[in-house]
Specification:
It contains 5 helices and no strands. It has 98 residues and is mainly alpha-helical. The chain is globular, with a radius of gyration of 12 Å. InterPro entries: ACP-like_sf (IPR036736).
């Protein structure tokens, strides 16, 4: 399941990288920063990415998923820091929804 989720998220990150011309997002891996000073991603691109990932996950798993909720925002370390932390967060959400 992790590989399937990773593929969905990485493709969404690539799309945002192309759409917003953000070089670091054009060839993402699990260590690619999505949030924070060294990410190169502005707030508009991050919000767009979150929406893109939510849509792609809903299409893939036939179940809507909300990433930017109170739970995500209340964590001491943001699940949006890197591609890998976002993958882990999605797995956690899907595990709890079963």
């Amino acid at each position: 399941m992790r590989e399937k989720i990773a593929n969905v998220i990485i493709e969404a990150v690539k799309t945002i990288g192309e759409d917003f011309d953000i070089d670091v997002l054009k060839k993402p891996n699990e260590e690619t920063r999505l949030f924070g000073a060294k990410s190169g991603v502005d707030s508009v691109a991050l919000v767009t990415l979150i929406a893109e990932v939510e849509d792609a996950l809903a299409d893939t798993f036939d179940d809507p998923i909300v990433l930017a909720d109170e739970r995500a925002m209340s964590q001491s370390r943001s699940p949006f820091r890197r591609v890998g932390t976002l993958i882990d967060y999605v797995i956690e959400l899907l595990d709890k929804s079963e």
